Structures are given as C-alpha cells and as structure tokens.
Automatic annotation (TrEMBL):
Keywords from the named record: Transferase
Keyword hit for Transferase: yes
Protein name: CoA transferase subunit A
Lineage: superkingdom: Bacteria
Sample GO molecular function, one term: CoA-transferase activity
Pfam families: CoA_trans
Transport keyword on record: no
Length: 248
C-alpha cells in the first residue's frame, strides 16, 4: 500500500491544484485551521478559487493569506467579520459571497459527504437567505404546515482538515473545539488532505476514539511551528477585577 504520509504540505498539493477549483477548509475562527496547507495553497498561485468554510480567516491568519493574494473568486461562509480585505472586495464587487446560517452550512457539507443532494430547513425562510431557492410546506410538530427552504449539499475538489492525531492509515482524532467543521469536510472532498499535530503507529489510536476513519483520508501532512493566536483579546481593568476579588 502506498503511504498516505507526505513530507510537506507543498508535496501533498503538488499536481493537484488548478485554477477554478473548489476548496473546503476546516476551522472556526483561529481554531482547528490547517494553516500549513493554506500557505501551500497560497504558494501554488492557483486563481479563481471557490472556498467553503465557516469563515475566510482574519487579518494575517488562515485563509486570509490566500484571499490577500487575489486567488479567491467566491466564498461560501457563515461568518465574514474580522476580515477587512474580504469586506472591501465584496463591497466593490470583486468577490462573491454566498452567506449561510452556520447550522445550514454544516448540514450542507454533511449532506454532500453523505451523498444527499438537497434537504429542507426552516432556517432562513422569509429572509434573503431564501431568495431564489425552492420553498415548500411540510407539516410541523403540531400538524400545522410550516414553510421550508431547500438547500443543496456541498462537495469540493479538495478538502483541507486539521486534526490532532493520525495514524498512517489516516484515522483521525480531533481535539476538543478544534473538531468544528473538520469531520464533515473530511467526507465531502474528492481529495482529502489532513494536516495533523502528531502521527502515531497503526493500532495506537483506540477504535472508539477515532472521529474520522482513514477510508476518507487520502493524504497526511505533519504540521509544525504552531502558535496560539487570540483573535480578539479582552481583559478587565485591574481595579474592576480587584474589586471582584480576583487574584493576580
């Protein structure tokens, strides 16, 4: 069996990236972001990309680097704050954004990975989210008909996921909230590349602890040089904290 482990993110992407591709990338804010793969995507120079993710990074972090390099044409996301470049380019018509309620985005990705072409949800009915989409009535819990919006499943040419541990077969474990969108994206990409913090021996991961089975993962990259960033630092004035009895 050919090894799924690649020595660098650049090698894992080599020969796979082209203009016009759709890329899914895991993460929520600055948590669970496959940063090495994102930087390799930037270095590839691929243009006119469609990017699917909760957000598009924030200034100087995550997918922001690919956006700042003028490589993205369209974004499907649920949150676009903290990104001045995205705001500017959207307002000037340089980039297209398809806004999704966060739960709807997650379900669209899960549905795409499960082979479900579309589903109905009440979320967004009667708002701009539903404009141009099919709507239909179904009985509610009390039997009274409710309006629903049809949403389509999402897939991608390549999915980047970030995991805590992997074995050589590609079985993955995510750590706490860094799991976020990563497991569902691992099912929805034609090519799935996992960036991980540690690679262990086959059999070392307990079977019932595995979040993503290796059958979904095509390539593995060992990441390095991680540092914890704080998106927005908020502190209490010392006088207020002291009055509340907090210790320093």
């Amino acid at each position: 069996m050919n090894s799924k482990i690649y020595s660098s993110a650049a090698l894992a992407l080599s020969g796979e990236v082209r203009d016009g591709m759709t890329i899914m990338s895991g993460g929520f804010g600055l948590c669970g972001v496959p940063s090495d793969l994102i930087m390799a995507l930037k270095a590839s120079g691929a243009k006119d990309l469609t990017v699917i993710g909760n957000n598009v990074g924030c200034d100087d972090h995550g997918m922001w680097h690919v956006l700042a390099n003028n490589q993205i044409r369209k974004v499907l996301a649920s949150y676009v704050g903290e990104n001045k470049i995205l705001e500017s380019r959207y307002m000037s018509g340089e980039i297209e954004i398809e806004f999704n309620p966060q739960g709807t985005l997650a379900e669209r990705i899960r549905a795409g990975g499960a082979g479900i072409p579309a589903f109905y949800t009440r979320t967004g009915y009667g708002t701009k989210v539903a404009e141009g989409k099919e709507t239909r009535q179904f009985p509610g819990q009390d039997g009274v008909p409710e309006w629903y919006v049809m949403e389509t499943g999402l897939t991608a040419d390549i999915a980047f996921v970030k995991a805590w541990k992997a074995d050589a077969e590609g079985n993955l474990i995510y750590r706490k909230t860094a799991r976020n969108f990563n497991p569902m994206m691992a099912t929805a990409g034609k090519l799935v590349i996992a960036e991980v913090e540690e690679i262990v021996e086959i059999g070392e991961l307990a079977a019932d602890a595995i979040h993503t089975p290796g059958i979904f993962v095509d390539r593995i990259v060992l990441g390095s040089g991680y540092s914890k960033h704080i998106e927005r630092l908020t502190t209490r004035p010392r006088a207020v904290a002291a009055a509340a009895g907090e210790q320093f």
